[in-house]
TrEMBL record:
It comes from the Eukaryota. This is Neurogenin-1. Residues 120-150 have a biased composition (Low complexity). The keyword Transcription regulation applies. Residues 19-28 have a biased composition (Basic residues). Keywords: Transcription, Transcription regulation. It holds the Pfam family HLH.
Length: 176
DNA sequence: TAGGCCATCTGGTCCT
DNA sequence: AGGACCAGATGGCCTA
């Protein structure tokens, strides 16, 4: 807000140079104050837009979280974990599809003796052996406090693989 | 208390 | 000119 002084319209010797300088100074201060408030209001508007933008970004991130399987269910992944997990999850799903195409129709030998990888056993190796350069399905590379345990890593692809290969999916399978 | 995560502010840059 | 996007800075909250 420009502090508009009460004495802005007094009339004393309109032609005097000193008075003219004083008026110029006041006018300049007024325009500077105006400019300042203009800049300020633009900044406030920009801040508001930026806040909104980030809220939308977070909403999208929440949506992404909601379709990612986590263990336990109420685990909330951080932003970076969500992005990494989504990346790896997509990779794992497409890999699952690829493997499913290979095993349909299921070869008799496979159904009989050799069981598909289970979450607890060699699913991790299934993941890593599927592609040497494959990313881990783990959401993060962080320490033990990370919500993405090794259990989570094998969880989704192993179960979906079971489904695709005509075997009963394990209870609580993440894929609908 | 240090470190991680997050929200917000801010100034710069690019685009329409 | 104004809006969108981006990256850096800052401060608050939480946890080990």
């Amino acid at each position: 807000m420009p502090a508009e002084g009460p004495g802005s319209g007094e009339g004393a010797e309109p032609g005097a140079p000193r008075e003219r300088r004083r008026r110029r100074g006041r006018a300049r201060a007024r325009t500077e104050a105006l400019l300042h408030t203009l800049k300020r209001s633009r900044r406030v508007k920009a801040n508001d837009r930026e806040r909104n933008r980030m809220h939308h970004l977070n909403a999208a991130l929440d949506e992404l979280r909601s379709v990612l399987p986590t263990f336990p269910d109420d685990t909330k992944l951080t932003k970076i974990e969500t992005l990494r997990f989504a990346y790896n999850y997509i990779w794992a799903l497409s890999e699952t599809l690829r493997l499913a195409e290979q095993c349909l129709p299921p070869p008799p030998a496979f159904r009989g003796s050799a069981a598909p990888p289970s979450p607890g056993s060699d699913a991790g190796s299934w993941l890593s052996s599927a592609s040497p350069s494959a990313p881990s399905l783990c959401a993060s590379t962080s320490g033990p406090s990370s919500p993405a345990t090794s259990e989570d890593c094998a969880y989704a692809p192993a179960d979906s693989l079971r489904g695709f290969c005509g075997l009963p999916a394990a209870p609580g399978a993440p894929l609908r």
